[in-house]
Design a protein that fits this description.
Chain B: Keywords: Aminoacyl-tRNA synthetase, ATP-binding, Ligase, Nucleotide-binding, Protein biosynthesis. Chain B: This is tryptophan--tRNA ligase. The complex is a heterodimer. By secondary structure, chain A is α/β, with parallel strands linked by helices. Chain A has helices at about 5-15, 30-35, 70-75, 90-95, 145-155, 195-200, 230-240, 240-260, 265-300; strands at about 20, 40-50, 55-60, 85, 115-120, 130, 140, 160. In chain B, β1 (about 25) and β2 (about 30) form a beta hairpin. In chain B, α6 packs across α7 (about 145-165), α7 (about 145-165) packs across α18 (about 370-395) and α9 packs across α12 (about 215-230). Classes of the chains: A alpha/beta, B alpha/beta. The interface between A and B is medium-sized, with 31 and 32 residues.
C-alpha cells in the first residue's frame, strides 16, 4: 500500500514544484471545488475504467472535457460498449485508494502496473492542474512538467490524448482505433473479498457465480449482489455472532422437541436429545471456536508491538 | 498420503498380471475375478492385524464415549500396534495423529472425507493433536500441475478438511511447498539414506532389473521418504520440542500400508518410535464395479458440492442395487445385501445401529423395497453434505492461514 505521503516525498526528491491543500474528505469534483479555488489550478475528473477482458484504465481529464465512453471504447479498439466503470474492489485492490480518490498518482503502486493511464491533452495548456495524492482529504496542484517528471521516475510514459476528437465514423476502414496501442497487454483478475470467496466456492457446480454489472456513472459505485446464497450468509454469522449461535442451537433443540416430544416421557426425551444433538452441536461449537481463534490470530499478525 | 507415486515407474512386473489373485497396492485395487475384496486375506497378505471387538470395547472404555460408527461397522478394520498405543495412553503417554491428502482436484467426494471424519473423531475422543500433510509438491510433479496451481488446490482442499470440524488449537495443517525445510528436511534425508533401492522395490512388490535403469531414483526416494517424515515428532520442533519418543497414530486406507511398512522399518534405525496404523477398507463406487470411488468419474461418487437434487438423482440412477428384478421375486427371496450399494453406504453413514439392523432385516427378507432404502440414503447423505457446506462456507482464508501457521499448540492435549 502506498501511503500518500510517499507522493510528496517523491515530489521533494525530484524537486517538483507543487502546492498542497488539506480539506475535509471530498467525493466529487463539486465538493472539491468548494475548498480548492480555480485560481490554484484546473480541477480534474478521474475515471477508473475496465474493459471486458479485465484490463483497467485511468482516464484523467479537465472537468469540462467531455468524455464519451462509447467513443473512447471504439478508439481503444474495444467496440462500442467495451468499457465501463470499474467496480469498487478493483479501486482498492489495484489502485490502493478509496472512493473519490482516483488519480494519476495511483500508478505509483506495484498493483497498478498493468493499469493504462490516459491524460487529457488540455492539461498541457494549464499553468497547474489539481489531483488527489491518493487521499481524498488532500489535493495537490502542479504543472504537467511536474506530472511527467513524476511518471518518468516510476518508469511510466506520460500519455496525453485529445479526448474530444470525434471523427465520424469514429473508427472505420480508413480510421483504425487510434488509442488501441494504449490497451494494456496484461489483464488483471481482481480477487473477491475473503468472505465472498468462501461462499462462492461452495455454490453448486452447475451454478456459476453471478457476474456483477457496475453502474456506469461518473462516480464509482458499490458492487451489486454476487450470487452468494442466503444460506451461506447466515452460516458465517452463526459462527461469529454469539446471539446467532445461541439462536441456531435453540432452533434445532426446539425443532427436535416439537417433533419427538409428543407422548415421550421426559427421561427418554432427554436421552434422545443427547443422542441426536451432541455431535451436531459439537461441530457447531468447534467452528465457532475456530472462527474466534482465526480472528484473533489475524489481529495478532496485524497488531503493532508495544512501544518500549 | 499419495497414491500416485511411481505411476510412471511402470508396473509391468507387478503382481497384477495374475487375475486369480486380488491386487491391493497404492496404485491398483482390484478384487479377485471381479468379486469382492477379501479383507481377511489382505490382512494375512500384508501382515497387519484385525481390529477386533475387544479393541473396540477398549477404545470405548478409554474414551468414555460410543466408538465411532466406522469402528462399529468395521470400516476401520485393521491396524498395526494400535493396542500398544492404547497401552501407552492408559499409562498417561499420549500420542499424536497424522493424516494427509494429495490435493489433485478441487472436487472432493465422500470417499475422500472418510479418513478425515474418522481422524476428527480420534482427535476429539482421545484429546490429542493432529498434523495434516498436503502433498502439493508430489502432485505438482506427478500430475504435471504448475506449482501455483498445486498450492492453490492445497488451500482449497484445506478448507474442506477444516470443515470436517478439526479444532484449530490442536491441529497443524501444512503443505510440502510451505513447510519442507529445516527439521523436516533433515528427517527426509535421514530416511532417504536408510531406504535402499532394493528394499523399496521389495516393499512395493516390484522386481526386475530393468526398473533400476529406468528409475530416476532421487525424486522417487524423496517421495518415498515424504510420507514417512511426519510420523516423526522431531519433524515438528514448534509442536513437540524435546518429545522425540512421542508416538504417532496414522489413520489411512489399507492400500497405503506399504508406505508405512517402510516407515516402520526405518524408524527404529533413526531412534524413533514406529508409527502405529489404523486402516480402513475402501468406500465403494456408486455403480459398485470392484474397487473404489474415482474422482475421474463424476457418477461414481457423491461430491460435497452436489445439490440435494443431484444426490437424489445419482443415488436413484447409479447406485447399484441388490434388489431383485421384479417385486414378486424381491418379496420372495429378498435383496442381495452383499452387493447392494445403498445398504453399504448406509452402513458407513447411518449412525443409528438399530435402524440399520432393521433396514437390513426388512430389505434382506424382501419386505422393504430398493426405493425405500434409496430414499433413506438420500436423506442421510443430503443432511451430511448440507452440514459440510455450511461449515465450509464459514472457512475463510484467514482461518486457513491460522491452521497453517507454524505456531505452538499449547492446549494440544487438553
Amino acid at each position: 500500500v502506498c501511503n500518500y505521503r510517499i507522493i510528496f516525498w517523491i515530489f521533494q526528491e525530484l524537486q517538483i514544484d507543487y502546492s498542497k491543500y488539506e480539506h475535509p474528505p471530498v467525493l466529487t469534483v463539486e465538493e472539491q471545488a468548494k475548498y480548492v479555488s480555480s485560481s490554484e489550478g484546473a480541477l480534474s475528473k478521474n475515471l477508473f475504467l475496465k474493459d471486458k477482458k479485465n484490463r483497467y484504465y485511468i482516464v484523467s481529464a479537465m472537468t469540462d472535457t467531455k468524455v464519451d465512453m462509447k467513443v473512447l471504447s471504439q478508439r481503444l479498439g474495444l467496440g462500442k460498449g467495451g468499457i465501463r466503470m470499474a467496480p469498487e474492489e478493483a479501486l482498492s485492490e489495484l489502485l490502493q485508494v478509496s472512493l473519490g480518490c482516483v488519480t494519476p498518482f495511483a500508478v505509483v503502486n506495484e498493483s497498478a502496473r498493468d493499469v493504462s493511464l490516459l491524460l487529457d491533452q488540455k492539461f498541457k495548456n494549464q499553468t497547474r492542474c489539481i489531483f488527489h495524492p491518493l487521499s481524498n482529504d488532500v489535493s495537490v496542484s502542479l504543472n504537467t512538467l511536474g506530472l511527467d517528471k513524476f511518471l518518468q521516475s516510476i518508469g511510466r510514459d506520460s500519455v496525453y490524448i485529445d479526448l474530444e476528437v470525434n471523427a465520424n465514423p469514429v473508427v472505420g476502414k480508413d480510421q483504425p482505433p487510434d488509442l488501441a496501442v494504449y490497451v494494456p497487454s496484461n489483464s488483471v483478475v481482481v480477487p473477491e473479498l475473503p468472505t465472498k470467496t468462501a461462499s462462492i466456492q461452495t455454490a453448486s457446480k452447475n451454478v456459476s457465480a453471478e457476474k456483477t454489472k457496475p453502474v456506469a456513472s461518473a462516480k464509482p459505485s458499490k458492487l451489486a449482489g454476487n450470487g452468494k446464497s442466503a444460506v451461506e450468509d447466515s452460516a458465517l454469522l452463526v459462527f461469529k455472532n454469539p446471539e446467532k449461535f445461541v439462536e441456531e442451537i435453540l432452533d434445532k433443540t426446539t425443532a427436535l422437541l416439537l417433533s419427538e416430544g409428543k407422548g415421550e416421557n421426559v427421561e427418554a426425551l432427554a436421552e434422545t436429545f443427547r443422542k441426536r444433538l451432541t455431535s451436531e452441536f459439537t461441530h457447531l461449537a468447534v467452528m465457532y471456536k475456530n472462527t474466534a481463534y482465526s480472528q484473533g490470530f489475524y489481529a495478532g499478525t496485524q497488531s503493532q508491538p508495544k512501544r518500549p | 498420503v499419495s497414491s500416485q507415486l511411481a505411476m510412471d515407474v511402470g508396473k509391468k512386473d507387478s503382481i497384477a498380471s495374475d487375475s486369480s489373485e486380488q491386487v491391493v497396492n497404492p496404485w491398483e485395487v482390484a478384487a479377485k475375478d471381479g468379486g469382492k475384496i477379501d479383507y481377511d486375506k489382505l490382512i494375512d497378505q500384508f501382515g497387519c492385524q484385525r481390529l477386533d471387538d475387544s479393541l473396540i470395547d477398549r477404545v470405548q472404555r478409554l474414551t468414555s464415549r460410543q466408538p465411532h460408527v466406522f469402528l462399529r461397522r468395521g470400516v476401520f478394520f485393521a491396524h498395526r500396534d494400535f493396542n500398544e498405543v492404547l497401552d501407552a495412553y492408559e499409562r498417561g503417554d499420549k500420542f499424536y495423529l497424522y493424516t494427509g491428502r494429495g490435493p489433485s482436484s478441487e472436487a472432493l467426494h465422500l470417499g475422500h472425507l472418510i479418513p478425515f471424519m474418522f481422524t476428527k473423531y480420534l482427535q476429539e475422543a482421545f484429546k490429542v493433536p493432529l498434523v495434516i500433510q498436503l502433498t502439493d509438491d508430489e502432485k505438482c510433479m506427478w500430475k504435471n500441475l504448475s506449482v501455483e496451481e498445486s498450492q492453490r488446490l492445497a488451500r482449497e482442499n484445506a478448507k474442506d478438511i477444516i470443515a470436517c470440524g478439526f479444532d484449530v488449537t490442536k491441529t497443524f495443517i501444512f503443505s510440502d511447498f510451505d513447510y519442507v525445510g529445516g527439521a523436516f528436511y533433515k528427517n527426509m534425508v535421514k530416511v532417504a539414506k536408510c531406504v535402499t533401492l532394493n528394499k523399496a522395490m521389495g516393499i512395493f512388490g516390484f522386481s526386475g532389473e530393468d526398473h533400476i535403469g529406468k528409475l530416476s531414483f532421487p525424486p522417487v526416494q524423496a517421495c518415498l521418504s515424504v510420507p514417512a517424515v511426519p510420523s516423526f515428532p522431531s519433524s515438528f520442533p514448534h509442536l513437540f520440542p524435546g518429545k522425540d519418543k512421542l508416538r504417532c497414530l496414522i489413520p489411512c486406507a489399507i492400500d497405503q500400508d506399504p508406505y508405512f511398512r517402510m516407515t516402520r522399518d526405518v524408524a527404529p534405525r533413526l531412534g524413533y518410535s514406529k508409527p502405529a496404523l489404523i486402516e480402513s477398507s475402501f468406500f465403494p463406487a456408486l455403480q459398485a464395479k470392484n474397487g473404489k470411488m474415482s474422482a475421474s468419474d463424476p457418477n461414481s461418487a457423491i461430491y460435497v458440492t452436489d445439490t440435494a437434487k443431484e444426490i437424489k438423482n445419482k443415488i436413484n440412477r447409479y447406485a447399484f442395487s441388490g434388489g431383485q428384478d421384479s417385486i414378486e421375486k424381491h418379496r420372495e427371496i429378498g435383496a442381495n445385501l452383499e452387493v447392494d450399494i445403498p445398504v453399504k453406504y448406509l452402513s458407513f453413514f447411518l449412525d443409528d445401529d438399530t435402524e440399520l439392523e432393521h433396514i437390513k432385516k426388512e430389505y434382506g427378507e424382501g419386505r422393504m423395497l430398493t426405493g425405500e432404502v434409496k430414499k433413506r440414503l438420500t436423506e442421510v447423505l443430503t443432511e451430511m453434505v448440507e452440514r459440510h457446506r455450511m461449515a465450509r462456507a464459514a472457512v475463510t482464508d484467514e482461518m486457513v492461514d491460522a491452521f497453517m501457521a507454524v505456531r505452538p499448540l499449547p492446549s494440544m492435549f487438553e
